[in-house]
Design goal:
single chain, six-stranded antiparallel β-sheet, 24 helices, 58% helix, globular
C-alpha cells in the first residue's frame, strides 16, 4: 500500500460518512508519508504528556502496534515487488536480447541494488586458458581488480568456478577455505573488499562463470539474498547461452522484424500483443506459475494453451521447435519448446488452432521463453535452499565457525537443534556405476534422498568424499546402530540400490564443540570402510557392532602408527620390490603357521614359502613367530587391510 493508497482510503472513508477514529488518524498519516519506525512512538508520548485518559493511551498503543505491522508488511511487499520487477526486467532484456554486455551489465547493476552491496561483478571461464576472468563490474574503482584473472581453485571466485557451489565469506583475508595468491589478494586489497558472496553461473551441469556481490565491510549474507543472487546468475547464464547461438539469434531477429511489419499494418494484432505483454508482466510480478502463463496466453490467442512435459510432447515437433527457436505446427496444434541451457524443460502447446498468424506465433514463442525463465528461477531457488542446508554441515565438519550462538541461529533457521544428541552417518553407494556419468548421477540421487531425509528428521546432510554425510538427532531409547540400519534401508529404497552406512557414537553439544562433528565423521567413515571390507554392503553399523575391532575403529586411535611399527618394513619391502611378503604372512597365519599348507594356499613351491618367511624374519627379527609378536603381527595385518582404500 503506497501513500496514495492510504490517502485514497481516508477520502473514501470520509465520503462514505464513516469518519476516521481519532486514535487511528495519526498513524494513518505516518503511514501515508512513509515515516520512520521511531515516529510511531510520538502519538502515545504526546497523549501521556497531555494527561489523556488511560483508555485512550492504551488504544493508541494498540493502534501503534497495528500500524507498525502494516508498515512492516508494506516494506516487505515493496522489497518483493522490487525483486520480482528486477527479475522481470531482466527477463524482458533477454527476450529482446541485442547486446550481451548490456544485459550482463543490467543484471550486475540490479543485483548490487537489491542486495545493497558496494560492489557487484561477474566473471566468465576461459576454457582455452583454463582460468576465469572479470567480464562486468559495477561499483569497482580499482583497475587492477577489474583486470584480475583467477586460476581454477584460486581465490573465492576460482573455488566457486571449480566446485560449482556458492561460497560466502564475511572476512576475505581471514578465510583460509580457498587458495590465496599474491595477485588476487592485491586486487581485492586495492578494491577494499571484505565480505564477498559468489554463486556459479550454470549451463546444465557445467560452470561457465561466477556472479559476485561484495561489501567493503564485514557482513553476513542471508539465505534469501543468496537465493536471489542465484536467480540473477541463472538469468545471466541464460543470456550468455542465448548470445552464443548466433545463427538462431539472427533468425529470431529477422522473424521479429517481419512480425513488427505485420503489427504496424494490423492495429488489432498490436492490441493483442500489448495485452499478452501486460498479462505476463502482471503474472511475473505477483509470482504466477507456468499454468498461469498458459491460461493468460489462451485468452489472448482465443484457444487452449497447455504446458506439457517433454515426455508427453511429440518428439520430432519438439526437437524441431528447439532447434529452430520457433513454434512449429503439428497436425492442428502448435508446439513451442520451453528450453534453457540446451535442456528441454517441456513445451507450450496451442490445441486445435491450425491457422496462426506470425504475430500470434511470436506471442506463443515469447510465452514459452517466459515459462523457461520462471522454471529456471524456481529451480535455482530450490537448489540454493539445498545448498544452504549443506553449508552448515560443511562448516561443522571443517570447524570453521566456532561461535556457538551463530551456529545455533543458523541451525534454528533450518529447523535443527544443535543442543540435542546427534549421530554422524557416512553413507555410500554399494556398487560402482558403469561410467563416470552414471556414477555422478547416482551420487546426485543419493545426495537428494539424504537431503530429503535430513529435512524431515530435523537434521543436516551434505555431499562429501564421494558419498553423503548426515547429522541426525538420536531419539531417547534409540541407538546409533539402529539409526544406521534404518538410514541404510531408507536411502537404499529411495535410490533403488544398496547403500552402506557407518555411524559414529552419539555426540552432544555440537554448537560449543563443532570439532566433535569432524571426529565423529571420521569414526563413521571407518565403520563404513569396515562394512565394505567385510562384504556387508547395504548394511548399517556403528563401532560397537565390531567387537574388539570396534575399539580400534572408534575414537582417535593411532592405527597407522601401530601398523608402521609392527609390519612397516615388510610393507615397504613389498612396495619397493613388488614381492608378496604380506600376502604370504596372511596365508601363513591363516594356515596355522604350517609351511606345507601355506604353499597349497598360495599355489607355490614349499621352498618359495621358506625363502619368503626367511626374508620376513630378517626384516622383523628372529622372534617374529613368538606368541606375543605373532598376535601383534596378525592384528597389524588385519588393520592394514582395513585402512587400505576400499575396493569398489
Amino acid at each position: 500500500m503506497s501513500r496514495d493508497h492510504v490517502q485514497s482510503a481516508e477520502r473514501s472513508a470520509t465520503a462514505a460518512g464513516a469518519p476516521l477514529n481519532s486514535t487511528e488518524t495519526p498513524f494513518l498519516e505516518l503511514l501515508a508519508r512513509g515515516a520512520s519506525a521511531d515516529a510511531y512512538e510520538q502519538p502515545a508520548l504526546l497523549a501521556r504528556a497531555e494527561g489523556r485518559p488511560t483508555e485512550q493511551i492504551v488504544a493508541l498503543e494498540q493502534a501503534r502496534l497495528l500500524a507498525l505491522r502494516v508498515r512492516s508488511e508494506l516494506e516487505g511487499r515493496r522489497r518483493r515487488e522490487a525483486e520480482l520487477s528486477a527479475l522481470f526486467e531482466t527477463a524482458h532484456d533477454l527476450a529482446g536480447l541485442r547486446d550481451l554486455d548490456a544485459v550482463l551489465q543490467a543484471i550486475v547493476q540490479r543485483a548490487r541494488s537489491l542486495l545493497g552491496t558496494d560492489v557487484a561483478y561477474l566473471s566468465l571461464n576461459d576454457p582455452a586458458r583454463g582460468d576465469t576472468y572479470m567480464r562486468v563490474t559495477e561499483g569497482s574503482v580499482a583497475a587492477r581488480f577489474q583486470q584480475l584473472r583467477l586460476g581454477m581453485g584460486e581465490g573465492l571466485g576460482g573455488l566457486v568456478a571449480q566446485t560449482a557451489r556458492p561460497y560466502v565469506t564475511d572476512d576475505y583475508f581471514k578465510d583460509d577455505r580457498f587458495q590465496h595468491t599474491l595477485a588476487i589478494d592485491a586486487g581485492v586489497r586495492d578494491e577494499g573488499l571484505v565480505a564477498i558472496l559468489g554463486v556459479p553461473l550454470m549451463l546444465g551441469h557445467h560452470v561457465i562463470g561466477v556472479l559476485f556481490a561484495a561489501d567493503r565491510r564485514a557482513r553476513v549474507f542471508e539465505r534469501e539474498q543468496i537465493a536471489l543472487l542465484g536467480s540473477f546468475a541463472a538469468l545471466a547464464a541464460a543470456a550468455i547461452d542465448t548470445a552464443n547461438l548466433l545463427t538462431e539469434t539472427r533468425s529470431a531477429l529477422a522473424d521479429l522484424e517481419r512480425a513488427n511489419e505485420i503489427i504496424r499494418d494490423r492495429s488489432g494484432v498490436i492490441e493483442r500483443a500489448s495485452d499478452v505483454h501486460d498479462r505476463l508482466a502482471e503474472l511475473v510480478l505477483r509470482g504466477g506459475g507456468v499454468h498461469d502463463v498458459a491460461a493468460a496466453v489462451s485468452e489472448v490467442l482465443d484457444g487452449t494453451v497447455e504446458f506439457a512435459e517433454a515426455a508427453d510432447t511429440p518428439a520430432r515437433a519438439l526437437e524441431a521447435s528447439r532447434a529452430e527457436g520457433h513454434a512449429v505446427r503439428h497436425a492442428d496444434d502448435w508446439i513451442a519448446a520451453v528450453a534453457a541451457g540446451g535442456e528441454l524443460l517441456g513445451a507450450l502447446v496451442l490445441r486445435g488452432h491450425p491457422g496462426l498468424d506470425p504475430v500470434d506465433q511470436r506471442t506463443l514463442e515469447r510465452a514459452a521463453m517466459v515459462t523457461s525463465l520462471l522454471l529456471l528461477a524456481r529451480r535455482s531457488a530450490a537448489e540454493a535452499e539445498q545448498r544452504v542446508r549443506g553449508e552448515l554441515l560443511d562448516d561443522l565438519l571443517d570447524a570453521r565457525d566456532r561461535d556457538p550462538r551463530l551456529l545455533r541461529e543458523r541451525a534454528s533457521r533450518l529447523d535443527a537443534d544443535l543442543d540435542a544428541t546427534h549421530v554422524v552417518l557416512a553413507a555410500r553407494l554399494g556398487a560402482a556405476a558403469a561410467d563416470a556419468d552414471q556414477e555422478a548421477a547416482a551420487r546426485r540421487r543419493l545426495w537428494s534422498a539424504a537431503s530429503h531425509l535430513a529435512a524431515t528428521r530435523h537434521g543436516l546432510a551434505a555431499a562429501r568424499d564421494g558419498g553423503t554425510v548426515l547429522l541426525l538427532p538420536l531419539e531417547t531409547g534409540d541407538t546409533a546402530t539402529a539409526l544406521a540400519r534404518r538410514t541404510a534401508r531408507h536411502l537404499g529404497t529411495a535410490v533403488h540400490e544398496a547403500v552402506t552406512v557407518g555411524a559414529s557414537a552419539p555426540v552432544e553439544d555440537l554448537a560449543a564443540h563443532p570439532d566433535a562433528v569432524a571426529a565423529a565423521y571420521e569414526e563413521g567413515r571407518r565403520c563404513l570402510d569396515a562394512l565394505r571390507l567385510l562384504g556387508r554392503s547395504g548394511d548399517g553399523a556403528a563401532a560397537e557392532d565390531f567387537g574388539f575391532l570396534g575399539l580400534l575403529l572408534a575414537g582417535d586411535r593411532d592405527i597407522a602408527g601401530f601398523v608402521g611399527r609392527t609390519i612397516g618394513q615388510v610393507v615397504a619391502y613389498d612396495e619397493r620390490r613388488g614381492t608378496d611378503l604380506l600376502r604370504t604372512l596372511d596365508a601363513y597365519f591363516a594356515c596355522g603357521m604350517s609351511p606345507a599348507r601355506t604353499k597349497d594356499e598360495l599355489h607355490v613351491h614349499v621352498n618359495t614359502v621358506a625363502q619368503r618367511l626367511e626374508r620376513v624374519g630378517r626384516l622383523l627379527g628372529d622372534d617374529w613367530q613368538s606368541p606375543a609378536r605373532a598376535l601383534e603381527i596378525q592384528l597389524a595385518l588385519r588393520l592394514h587391510r582395513l585402512s587400505a582404500p576400499a575396493q569398489p
